[in-house]
Amino acid sequence: MRDKIVAGNWKMNLNFEDAIQLGTNLNAWVADNQPDAQVIISPSSIYLQVLLEAVDEQYVKVASQDISAHDKGAYTGDISGEQLDSIGLDFVIIGHSERREYQGETDAIIAEKLKQAFKNQINPIFCIGEKLEEREADQHFEVVKSQLLNALKSQNTEDLSRLIIAYEPVWAIGTGKTASPEQAQEIHAYIRKVLNDEFGVEIANETSILYGGSVNAQNANDIFSQPDIDGGLVGGASLKYEDFIQIIAACK
């Protein structure tokens, strides 16, 4: 059975006190309510160590927002997989559309980052998704398949058991727009078909695929009820405690 997952990507938000408060509040709620979904939070890198110590990993996992494509060396500002593993980190977001857009990350760079995550026993939340003009040109299937295979074809197939995929329609991130549940299900099912065709039925059936386009407390039930949607990668709503716990509770 595929894992249900709700991951909060806090991006470059929250000061230290607010981050710790939100993390500990979420931990207490998960401990009390025992939701069906695994809860993951992804704070800014300077808070990773403290949040790892502030939450109980049986209730809340902590993810890095990035990982270096390199083992070690003169890469100012990068954080290596070995460094993340050494503090006990189990998850990392890779290939988010904002890093593709603002940091110029290519499929080739993302493929190397995935290798570093797998090498260091870190589970990647691998993001793929099309831009508005690609959706309007009916290229979304082609774009998603290309991003998927360009990054995964060079990986060892046995490592893919650690893979989590997040489909994030770029046109729905931070815009308030959301793919309809039917649109989201259609492309999630397509992603699972590509996995089946390229890597086999076991990988296809066991890989959790999350939806990542403006999930909120109002639409979470409808989105998570779709058969190929296994949870969400949540942005702005994950910064609001009451909204985020409603989203977590909707993932069953």
Written overview of the protein:
- This protein has a single domain, classed as Alpha-Beta Barrel (TIM Barrel).
- The mean pLDDT is 96.
- Helix 3 links the parallel strand 3 and strand 4 (91-94).
- An eight-stranded parallel β-sheet has the order 7-6-5-4-3-2-1-8.
- The radius of gyration is 17 Å and the shape is globular.
- Helices cover 43% and strands 15% of the residues.
- With 252 residues, it is an alpha/beta fold.
- Helix 5 packs across helix 7 and helix 7 runs parallel beside helix 8.
List the helices and strands and how they pair.
Blueprint: E1 5-9, H1 16-33, E2 38-42, H2 48-54, E3 60-64, H3 81-86, E4 91-94, H4 97-102, H5 107-119, E5 123-128, H6 132-136, H7 140-152, E6 164-167, H8 181-199, H9 201-206, E7 208-211, H10 220-224, E8 231-234, H11 241-250
Parallel strand pairs: 1-2, 1-8, 2-3, 3-4, 4-5, 5-6, 6-7
Low-confidence stretches: none
Oligomerization state: single chain
- Biggest β-sheet description: 8 strands, parallel
Quick one: how many beta strands?
Answer: 8
Average pLDDT number: 96
Q: How does the helix and strand content classify structurally?
A: alpha/beta
Looking at the overall shape, the CATH architecture is Alpha-Beta Barrel
Q: Please give the count of helices.
A: 11
Q: Please write the CATH class name.
A: Alpha Beta
Strand content: 5-15%
Shape: globular
CATH homology group? Aldolase class I
Q: How many structural units, i.e. domains?
A: 1
Question: Measured on Cα atoms, how large is the radius of gyration?
Answer: 17 Å
Spatial order of strands in the largest sheet:
7-6-5-4-3-2-1-8
Assign the CATH topology.
TIM Barrel
> What's the end-to-end separation, in Å?
13 Å
